[in-house]
Specification:
homotetramer; mainly alpha; three-stranded antiparallel sheet; 11 helices; 54% helix; globular
């Protein structure tokens, strides 16, 4: 459009003609797997077979963690209010924040920053790892992507790293993270969690940190849909989802000041 | 858990052990395509190869429609306020409602209702089609899933129906919808749109109507992520996304009543 | 604007000049109480002193119900994910639906429908009440706005009705609801809950049913803000807000079918 | 509750008895203005008459800015998708972020930090103002709360500052902000916008910065409700709200690579 107000690189919309990142949608549908189309949307090009398979694995790795995380609890809670399915799914996605899924972005920033430093300063990852930990400590932070509330050895991490090796996708960022983990492990054994594994592999695939929470959302939307649908099928609205055993420690009961009384 | 307050059929969460619909997550990751895992989450069983491929096609068919639909506009608009990526994606998903993507659910209800009636009353789809249209008309409604603001011949519909035939997935619901379209077409040519095509094929695959909007969300989340990421990379916050040329036709300017003035 | 694409009746925005429903915002600020400005926004005119005070009471009546309702739980749950304050407040508002706060809209529709019928058919409310209950029963519904999970005698209802009488606001819709409650009470004592009281009084003030959920939102936003702020100040992110004692009753653990294994 | 899992200071919920911050809700309703109850919820005590009136003014000052801000556009856009009123209002609130309403929080942080420094170092505001500007400049930031897209002299600011003087609420934070504005004004005349004015006055009232966006939300929810209701009454779903004149500058149209073709 010569007189367009601004341009978008995503989809050209014309009557009976939809072109996404250059490809006609009718060509993509049923021929290119959905997760490869996601890669296309975020990178602008279709993935190599290895990147395509890794992308699918990354998204599948976030698919669900039962009723334990805030996102699943929020989606189910909102649905009990009697709202449409997308509203409830959206509430679950809104819980994805700095403390829930956010470690992907934070770990991507860390890994990409220090891999670059390693390249520039010709420092080995083993030599760099103590500095990474010290730098974070100086900022009052822990290593993002290490440790988990439930798992001491996250099966999703093991699988993602194994697949990344098999496919030849694993590179510097994965190696650096393992060096950092080893350094931390001298004091206390902590697993790389699924957020950390996604961060490492996605960085090796050339993705930007700002997409970190999006990877999580792209997979978890499936689990959230299942939670909302189960709530729809098996349970009543306004049921008591959780035991809420909350006390009151506010001010003692009191009368209104005289000026408010008629 | 013998003393659980309630049960969920989705994921068993134990330390270092995540089992979704019976399958260990480390087995699913990188082996079963993501969209087949979505099918597993919603149906409880892995799809046949034909259903798996059709499921992937359905989700890919909803991936994006440029900056024209409310969902994309909402996601980009919210992002310009300076919020996290998931909040903006969620705002886009919230726009999926009865008028935007909702035709899937409505068409699934229609098709499943009248296919059942056809079975019970041994009536052909051709004989039933005029009744469907009349029933909707009596309720003041149009046929859901017919017609599009932009397309007279939606390329996604053509592709989905072609694939459903190829894979042997197309069944009674698709046949009924084509009969309804033919009947409507006697007066006015109207295409089955992508919502209608998804409704027909998903009904032939045995999905329930209440999942209609969810199919749309599961695919569109990818396009919304791309819109938000493009907004992040290429544009400034609080930019004027759209030309807003809105007048004021409220009450004329006036003074407050005297009692409010000191 | 002579060439405006469409018109809005709400606010005229010009440089250094903001006119809402005819009044300059600098005149409204600090002179007209906020809840009276809300009335102005929804009705187009400032309220009489009686309507103004009643409007304030209606909004205050929805202010908070502790950590028991889905809205408060959703807001707190989403905030623990590590998101901005408005995202968490919004999640709480999204839980306001047909089953949570929705009785206001449903009761307004009921009351306005049958008060009109009473006028047209010159039927007394006592004579009409059994018909209302029967009509709802025929639709498989209960009387909206009756009964509460916690209260047998909702103190907010008592206060709203008392004030409506004092101010001369109480009219036909309140009278009809009391007649319906009395009729129901012949079988089972059920209180008019706060949703029902708001529905009756707001109908007597001439508001439309579609605003029902909005009244609830306009007050509850204050409580939700307090919950989110308390979560911010007194608690950690990703804390376990609620005891989640959920079992798994999905398929037994199983191996992937052979075709997925390499 | 002796065995409560945790305590909340907000509302004690017992059958037929609701106590918020020590006051029975039936005492508050219709006696204490809603905005004073908001103050109670956020501070724990009812306001003095001066603080009560100022609080009402602050909330009213955020009530609406027509269809120009992202929040109003998001709420209306989401509503056109055919969703419940609260979902649409929530989408508007989600647009309140670092770039839209966020200046309140940022300005509160700035003012409270430097007022404290002024107290500790016994430095006058005039002496401190250049340092504030320099510090922000060193961080690559501008003064939050200065300047507006539409107004060179925001009528809401003028009114809020006038009222704060009249009521004796204006204090050190307001004085510091005026000193900063004067210093900036030596180079370029920039108005304190409504966000800045709220930040100054709310800081003088002893509120914490983290509540900044909440003040905006507490008022704007009224305008958003009006926008959604107007959309409901006067317009059709899926209407084209805004002229979307967006071009496509992605990859040229192309065929799928051979390996994807059957």
């Amino acid at each position: 459009m010569p007189d367009a107000d601004w341009d978008s690189r995503i989809t050209k919309v014309e009557p009976n003609h939809l072109v996404t990142k250059g490809y006609r949608q009718e060509d993509l549908i049923g021929r290119v797997p959905y997760t490869h189309v996601v890669y296309l949307l975020l990178k602008g090009e279709l993935p190599s077979p290895e990147h395509g398979r890794m992308m699918d694995a990354i998204i599948t790795a976030s698919i669900d963690h039962g009723v334990t995380p805030p996102s699943a609890q929020a989606a189910r809670t909102v649905y009990t209010g009697g709202v449409p399915v997308p509203t409830a799914i959206a509430a679950g996605i809104m819980a994805v924040g700095d403390a829930h899924g956010g470690a992907i972005e934070q770990a991507m920033e860390m890994l990409q920053h220090y891999v670059k430093m390693s390249d520039e300063e010709e420092k080995s990852f083993e030599a760099l790892a103590p500095q990474v930990i010290q730098d974070l400590k100086d900022q009052g932070r822990r290593v993002p992507g290490l440790g988990h509330r439930v798992h001491t050895n996250d099966p999703r991490t093991t699988r993602l790293f194994q697949l990344a090796e098999e496919l030849g996708v694993a590179g510097k960022h994965t190696a650096l993270f393992k060096a950092i983990q080893a350094e931390v492990g001298k004091k206390r054994e902590l697993p790389i969690n699924v957020d950390g594994a996604i961060a490492a592999v996605a960085s090796d695939m050339g993705f930007e940190p700002r997409l970190g929470k999006a990877f999580f959302v792209l997979g978890r939307v499936a689990g959230l849909t299942a939670h909302v649908f189960e709530e729809h099928k098996d349970f009543k609205r306004m049921r008591k989802l959780f035991k809420v055993n909350v006390g009151y420690n506010g001010p003692e009961e009191r009368d209104l000041p005289a000026e408010y009384l008629e």
